[in-house]
């Protein structure tokens, strides 16, 4: 009878609503599983993805909640508070109108039919501008939130126990200064590089100086490629090592080419996730909008951490530290 009660108690402990909601389901027994000792290759990527799939929901939701200014940006871009005005579609509209008023003839009528079309235009208001300003707070939340979630995903990749809220807030508390600076630089650089790509693409399409604009356009694409890979390494190094931000950026740039094959594969995986989300939006728009709010971002962050951490561990930790975390002696370092 006693054995039956003990068995029932063990079964009851397997389900805990709080653990399910927060992701605190990793036990010491789970952390010691033999499968967590497998090499972090492509095969194990999908295996770990299946084992920890629910964890990425929690990561995604925490990213959205922590970066709440995203909501203000979305409202601003949606234009809910914009005014509507009528404006000419063609830049030749004033000249054509003047020609028509001066003399009505078949030529002026034909030109007016082509260049006289007016379309409703959405005009930003003060309210919309306020939402954009509130959305700029994302520059100050991006770094800390990304650091906290990177700590959780690093533990997942390493096979360590995860205590979701404790790990998240503890990491932010320890690294908040560098996280704020890095998050601000990260957000500004992403905005600048996206603007450059769009600007030079427009120059290539509509400008006569297409050769120079083409060089700048492809140069911007290359810089964006390098930086997107660098981002995979920046935040894991920031929460793991006591390094200055310039050194973190320098090391991330080195890792961009040091693990090029792994990095390119990770970028392709991220692109596939985005394309899949877009295809879902084409088929069923509400689900395509909901997915980034609950899963897509979490999967992308998992891909980034899974690609970066094994390389960081191989180059910056294993040669200098014993498995128990104690530093190696100089003569022990290969």
What are the segments in which pLDDT stays under 50 over at least 5 consecutive residues?
1-15, 17-23, 26-32
User: Could you give the count of β-strands?
Assistant: 2
Helix-and-strand structural type = mainly alpha
Largest sheet: 2 strands, antiparallel
As laid out across the biggest beta sheet, the strand order is: 1-2
Helix content: over 70%
Tell me, rounded to a whole number, the average pLDDT: 83
* Secondary-structure element pattern, one letter each: HHHHHHEHHEHHHHHHH
For the termini, the CA-CA separation is 59 Å
For this structure, the quaternary state is single chain
Measured by DSSP, the beta-strand proportion falls in under 5%
Principal-axes shape call: elongated
The gyration radius over C-alpha positions equals: 26 Å
- Count of discrete alpha- or pi-helical segments spanning 4 or more residues: 15
């Amino acid at each position: 009878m006693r054995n039956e009660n003990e068995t029932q108690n063990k079964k009851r402990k397997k389900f805990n609503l709080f653990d399910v909601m927060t992701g605190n389901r990793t036990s010491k027994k789970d952390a010691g599983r033999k499968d967590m000792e497998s090499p972090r290759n492509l095969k194990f990527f999908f295996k770990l993805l299946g084992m920890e799939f629910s964890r990425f929901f929690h990561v995604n939701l925490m990213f959205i909640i922590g970066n709440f200014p995203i909501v203000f940006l979305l409202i601003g871009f949606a234009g809910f508070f914009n005014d509507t005005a009528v404006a000419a579609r063609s830049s030749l509209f004033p000249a054509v109108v003047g020609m028509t008023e001066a003399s009505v003839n078949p030529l002026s009528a034909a030109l007016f039919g082509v260049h006289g079309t007016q379309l409703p235009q959405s005009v930003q208001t003060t309210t919309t501008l306020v939402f954009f300003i509130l959305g700029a707070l994302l520059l100050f939340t991006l770094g800390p939130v990304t650091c906290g979630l990177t700590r959780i995903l690093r533990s997942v990749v390493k096979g360590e126990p995860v205590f979701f809220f404790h790990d998240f807030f503890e990491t932010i508390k320890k690294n908040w200064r560098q996280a704020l600076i890095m998050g601000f630089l990260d957000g500004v650089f992403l905005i600048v590089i996206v603007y450059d790509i769009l600007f030079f693409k427009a120059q290539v399409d509509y400008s006569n100086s297409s050769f120079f604009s083409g060089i700048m356009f492809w140069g911007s694409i290359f810089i964006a490629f390098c930086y997107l890979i660098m981002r995979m390494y920046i935040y894991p190094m920031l929460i793991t090592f006591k390094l200055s931000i310039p050194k973190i950026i320098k090391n991330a740039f080195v890792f961009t080419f040091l693990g090029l094959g792994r990095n390119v594969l990770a970028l392709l995986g991220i692109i596939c996730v985005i394309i899949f989300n877009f295809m879902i939006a084409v088929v069923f728009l509400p689900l395509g909008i909901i997915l980034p709010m609950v899963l897509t971002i979490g999967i992308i962050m998992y891909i980034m951490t899974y690609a970066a951490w094994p390389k960081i561990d191989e180059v910056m930790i294993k040669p200098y530290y014993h498995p128990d975390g104690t530093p190696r002696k100089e003569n022990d370092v290969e």
